Amino acid sequence: MPGNTAQFETRGARIAPFAAEAEIGVITLREGRAYFNDQPLADPAAHAIAQACLRLIPPR
Hints:
By secondary structure, this protein is of the alpha+beta class.
């Protein structure tokens, strides 16, 4: 938690940091086809995910 937590604690406030994790799904490629959680992706969905991946993966 950013900042000085001691300032809050000495004034009687309680700090309860929390964390959250989420697994959205798994994308796999098999034989040139894209799957999301083992379900084949339709062409528009596959294209959208491929475009998103291209924005995230730096060019070589």
